[in-house]
Amino acid sequence: MKQLALITFEQFIDIDLFLMWDILGRNRDDWQVRVLGKQSELRSSNGLLIHTHGRLEEANHADVVLFASGKEGVPAAISDATFMGAFQLDPSRQLIGSICAGAFILARLGLLPEGRATTHPDARAALHAEGVELDDRPFTSSGNVATAGGCLAALYLVGWVVERLFGTQKMLEALRPVLPAGSMASTKGWLYPASSKGARNIVAVDSLRRWTRTEVRHP
Is the pLDDT at 23 greater than 60, yes or no? Predict the structure, then answer.
């Protein structure tokens, strides 16, 4: 069973963590997803208290490591030597990704291929100031590292993980439960309203698949 680690910290953005957690947590047969943090309890930017499942160091042995985001939480995390020093990640054997400002953590850890990433629109200038080349798409990947920008881009990040590990059909199965009512997934990976008579007018998995055409290296 594959081990998936969601990394978070104090003042994380609720939806950035919980959307990934919810989608991935629905499948308990193919993988196990756990939230890892420096403390056993962490509070979100909206004040919700959560209990973590393990220590940050456990991410070093996971098959997949995804970093959450936080306007206040990320700057504090990257300034924390204990937090940053916990990671010895290896993209040659792990899938590694981030949502929104989590890209700052990947940058500081030296994990961004070609120094390129996408992030939340409000964080673009600050990320560029870190020396990162910006990608204006909601999702970008290179090899085993991916970044997503915008809270709902977690769909792309999660889809990338599942497709890389288990293929397109499993990815469609994972995303289908969270799509708007009336949408459906075709075998080609398009998502569109069932009543639209084939009009492919909803951004979806097809664009995700085009953006993630990279050499597959299963951890």
Answer: yes
